[in-house]
Structure formats: C-alpha cells, structure tokens
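The protein record now logged underneath.
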Amino acid sequence: KEEKDSIFYFRSARSGLTTIINSFSIGENDEIILSAFTCDAVSNAILATGAKPVYIDIRYDLTMDIDNIKKAISSNTKAIIIQNTFGRNGIKEEDYRDLSRNNIIMIEDNCLSEGSKLNGKDLGYRGDFNISSLEVSKSFCLGWGGIVRVKNKSHAKKLKNYCSKLKPLPILLDIRNLLQLWFSLLFLRFPFFGGFILWYFLYGCRFFRISSIEDDVLK
C-alpha cells in the first residue's frame, strides 16, 4: 500500500523529473543516463538543471542496452533513468539489481507504461523514483499533470522539503487545463462538421496550450 507522503503531483511529468534532480542538487558537470529512444521532455527536464544527458542505445525490442549503460557509468553519473516503453521492461530484473548497488539514483520512466503489469506485478515500481504522465498522448490521460512516486522514505522527505519551497499552480491556469481537457473530450465524443477547425483555433489563440510550453516553465 502506497503511503500518502510518497506520492507527489506535478503540472507535468517533466517538471516532476526536474524537481527530483534539483532536490538532490544535481547540476553542472553531473551526468544522467537515459534511453536514446525518448522524447525531448526527458532531455529538456535534465538540461533545465544544468546536468548532462548521456544517451544509451536501445535493442530491437526497445529495451535499453545494459552493456552500454555499464560502459557509460562514470564518476560524474548521478542518476539513471530506466524507460519502460509501451509496457516493456526497460532492463531485466537481474540487471536492475546489479545497477542499483551503485550509489546512483534510479528513476523509472513509466509515462508510456502506466497500468502495465509484468508477471502479475505493476511495472515500473522498482526504482527510487517512478514517474508517470497524465498528458493527452499517454496511456492514462487526465489531460495534464504528472505523478512522482517515491520508494525510499528519506528520498520522499528530501523531495517534500524541496517541493515546500515551490510555488503552487495558479488557479486560473489550473482551470484552463481542465477546460482544455473537457473541450477535447467533447469534440471526440460529439464530433461535428468543422469541429476540428474550432479545436485548432483554440490552440492558435493560445487558449489551449501544447506540452512543449513546459520547457519555458522549467527554465
């Protein structure tokens, strides 16, 4: 059973990732290992902290190449992001246990696998941190938002202390996000001629916002 203090909600998964990195004072000259098959949300979240992303090749089945991960680990490596793509286990269990023995923060990216199970167990709950996205293109959608789950109590306390210094989401922006979700679902449920024009108009006039605007927030 998950404890209340081990779950954190953010305006996006990328802002959650940036907050994790910042809470451990990871920054310039530090390195974070991640999959080369990923979106710019992950890379930009790392770059926003001043840390350097180190990309790892993937195998034919979209999992991460464990040999390349081990070769990429250096004295500057502070975290490894294991990406579970489309319900696949980013790396094997035995490889995960091997990597977790290092004094390196393990973060599981479950944005494309929320709700997936492996051998009857929820996928993505092995690491120090688990990140999920609620954005419109993800497997579980509420329109916007991100979830960070923390396995280690001391890590949860560190993240909570850092989050206490952050500003909450402005209420008007929160309302706009909810309206964007409501309108999008309405257009899908009750399509009508010219509806897509209205939908794109709302994006053009910036009433609807695209997820990449989060990069400006991180900066």
About this structure: The helical segments are 13-23, 40-47, 66-72, 93-99, 153-163, 171-189, 195-204, 214-218.
